[in-house]
Amino acid sequence: MDRRTKVGVVTSTVAALAALVGCGGGSPATPTQPTPASLLPAGMVCDPTPPPLLRMQLKIHSDDGGRYVLDSKPVVPNVDHYCDRVGFGKWKFCDTRPEGDPQRTACNDPAQGRASDGVRWGPTWYYGTELCTQSTECALHESNQFMAIAHHNGTFYACAADTVPVDPKGGRGDSIDIDD
To answer: Which of 20, 94, 139, 140 has a beta carbon 3.0–4.6 Å from 25's, enabling a disulfide?
Structure first.
């Protein structure tokens, strides 16, 4: 590896670590059970309330020839048999609710908090260390904060709000690498 390649690898690693620390990856909040009244959007019901966030799970939802729709979801630990109570069984961790459950959106929202712009419920999206709202390499999905549009190869991050409780074994964000 020549010197320029090493510098590029170190720079990429530093940028990745900076984004994860920006997600709170280095210092999870004290885990406390969120209260439905304090975190739920108006008119939504989530009972039982999810335990503190364990991690984010990211995937490529669709690939349209260099335009990738990225998807995220919160994953929570099985505290007090939560996963069993919401229909997953005796898993170690699970989604906040199964796909198609009428409470899924209401339970995902407090598990993530509001994006950093404070407007929509869901994660804050980054391309490297740059917010997707300020980058030409990615954009927010027009109607779903849990999704983003990637226009380029690279590392993309989804980060939960700093106000959301995080399990001591977990973190606020996750990343996905796109490399054609």
So the answer is: 20
